[in-house]
Amino acid sequence: MKKSNITILISFLASFFMLQSCIDNDPVLFSGSVVEFDAAVWNTPATGQVYPILTRVPGYGRAISTNATAPSTADPLITRTSGNIEFRVNLVSAQKSEDQSISVSVVAEKSTAISGTHFTIPSTITIPANSSFGILTVAVINPGATSGSVDLVVQLDGNSTIKPSENYKQIGIRIAQN
């Protein structure tokens, strides 16, 4: 009786694996080209928004660290004295053989920060040839101490061949003014 149960079990398992190997799976390949903010990919969108509002300088390829258990290892806060802050932009596609100029803009209706008073940003960034990354440098300006904070929302607009990722094209930057 035990021998027949083992035979049935082995027959069942062999049939199961043979049927699984017969399924034809076509690989799904992404063939487009998009750009995205690395910080938008790794950090949760703010409540009611489609983008994160960053209060700390983000690292690359990871979420922002507030590290309540070891505050000395937390990412630095974004304040009026932060100076230049770099945000990585990811190219999601095969690398290009030529430099790619990607347009960047401020989303004025979502921003309270004032260009030239609280920040400056370039209108384009460059993703170098044979690279998957570019850098947007936001220059935070110190207008003097005030209370509260201002928000800057930046958007990737892409170029004629590389579109912005709809889910990760914006980041919010909260600049503490105290």
In a nutshell, what does this entry contain?
By secondary structure, this protein is an alpha+beta fold. It has helices at 2-21, 38-42; strands spanning 34-37, 53-54, 84-92, 100-106, 119-120, 124-127, 133-140, 149-158, 163-164, 170-176. It has two helices and ten strands.
Instruction: Give the mean pLDDT.
Output: 90
Largest sheet properties: 5 strands, mixed
The residue ranges in which pLDDT falls below 50 over 5 or more consecutive positions are: none
Describe the global form. elongated
Count the beta strands: 10
Helical proportion? Answer: 10-25%
Number of helices: 2
The strand line-up of the biggest sheet is 5-7-3-1-9
| SSE succession | HEHEEEEEEEEE
Separation of the first and last Cα atoms:
81 Å
Cα gyration radius (Å): 24 Å
Q: What fraction of the residues are assigned to beta strands by DSSP? A: 25-35%
Content-based structural category: alpha+beta
